[in-house]
């Protein structure tokens, strides 16, 4: 399928990674590739081992890389849970992904956390700072209290944007199913702006829209309205940045889609062989899917 002499191609490396995270030995990987690609394209045990080792070495270097030359406009922070230890609950993997001042995507950190507490995220942010990363202009995240608290404590100079998709889910969870389509449409209409320049005027328009939504639905759905009004200023921070960036910086989809792809690969395994394998898999998928390795 791939022909001879392609042992360093990304499709083949991805196949080796996929086999490795399933706990297969180098010999098993060699046999799998011979079966899948034919004997003329099979890898030797040593070649499969070298690919796996090189990826592990690259991940170790990634974790220690100096970030002092990285200048960010936007920083996306998110976590997702994976089973990586026998007899243990799923544990979070914390990820930082940025967009530089010249529009270059860069994967900054992939680290474990025993939970998504303030302390776990604070340690994560401290590691970024110790490696030389300066605060970005804007940080985009979900509404996890530990994450928000750590960001405000460790990167206080950055503006903070709360993911609108997460906030929409929060609001919709507090209304009856038969009214959710209506409320969902009304929610997204709050942020629909046409021919409005970025800045305080745009922020004021959306905040006024939020007030109108609150007056309209407060009697029927007071809990949903309270949810929308909580941390409301963080829903409009993105409006201070170029309008052509708005659709990218008001969500954390950049990381979440890749987490979904990683979970899809892991689903058939049930549990990853260990922490190192889990972290390197998330790193490999994120780096390849976003072109930031």
Walk me through the structure.
The protein has about 290 residues and is of the alpha/beta class. It has 3 domains: about 10-65; about 65-160 and about 250-293, Ribonuclease H-like superfamily/Ribonuclease H (Nucleotidyltransferase, domain 5, 2-Layer Sandwich); about 165-250. About 50% of the residues lie in helices and about 15% in strands. It is built from 12 helices and 5 strands. The protein has a 5-stranded mixed β-sheet with strand order 3-2-1-4-5, sandwiched between helices. α1 (about 10-20) crosses α2 (about 25-35), α6 (about 165-170) runs antiparallel to α9 and α11 crosses α12. The longest helix is centred in the N-terminal third of the chain and has 20 residues, at about 45-65. The radius of gyration is 22 Å and the shape is globular. The model is unreliable at about 1-10 (pLDDT under 50).
Quick structural overview:
Helices cover 50% and strands 13% of the residues. With 293 residues, the chain is of the alpha/beta class.
Fold blueprint:
Elements: H1 10-21, H2 26-37, H3 45-64, E1 72-82, E2 91-100, E3 105-112, H4 118-130, E4 138-141, H5 145-154, E5 159-162, H6 164-172, H7 180-189, H8 200-217, H9 222-229, H10 246-249, H11 253-267, H12 275-290
Parallel strand pairs: 1-4, 4-5
Antiparallel strand pairs: 1-2, 2-3
Helix pairs in contact: 1-2, 2-3, 4-5, 6-9, 8-9, 11-12
């Amino acid at each position: 399928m791939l022909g001879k002499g392609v042992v360093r191609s990304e499709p083949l490396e991805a196949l080796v990674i996929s086999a490795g995270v399933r706990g297969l030995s180098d010999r098993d990987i060699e046999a799998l590739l011979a079966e899948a690609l034919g004997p003329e394209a099979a890898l030797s045990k040593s070649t499969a081992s070298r690919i796996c080792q090189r990826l592990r070495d690259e991940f170790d270097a990634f974790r220690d890389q100096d970030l002092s030359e990285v200048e960010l406009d936007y920083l996306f922070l998110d976590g997702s849970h994976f089973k990586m230890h026998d007899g243990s609950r799923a544990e979070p993997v914390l990820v930082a992904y940025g967009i530089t001042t010249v529009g270059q995507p860069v994967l900054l950190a992939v680290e474990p956390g025993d939970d998504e507490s303030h302390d776990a995220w604070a340690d994560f942010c401290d590691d970024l700072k110790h490696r030389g990363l300066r605060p970005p202009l804007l940080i985009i995240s979900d509404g996890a209290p530990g994450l928000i608290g750590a960001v405000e404590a460790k990167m206080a100079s950055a503006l903070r944007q709360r993911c609108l998709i997460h906030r929409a889910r929060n609001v919709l969870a507090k209304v009856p199913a038969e009214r959710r389509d209506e409320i969902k449409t009304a929610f997204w209409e709050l942020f629909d702006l046409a021919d409005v320049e970025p800045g305080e005027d745009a922020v004021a328009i959306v905040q006024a829209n939020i007030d109108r939504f609150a007056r309209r639905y407060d009697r029927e759905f007071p809990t949903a309205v309270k949810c929308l009004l909580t941390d409301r200023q963080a829903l409009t921070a993105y409006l201070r940045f170029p309008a052509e960036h708005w659709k990218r910086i008001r969500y954390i989809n950049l990381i979440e889609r890749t987490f979904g792809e990683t979970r899809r690969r892991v689903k058939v395994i049930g549990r990853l062989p260990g922490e190192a394998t889990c972290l390197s898999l998330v790193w490999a998928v994120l780096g390849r899917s976003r072109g930031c390795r």
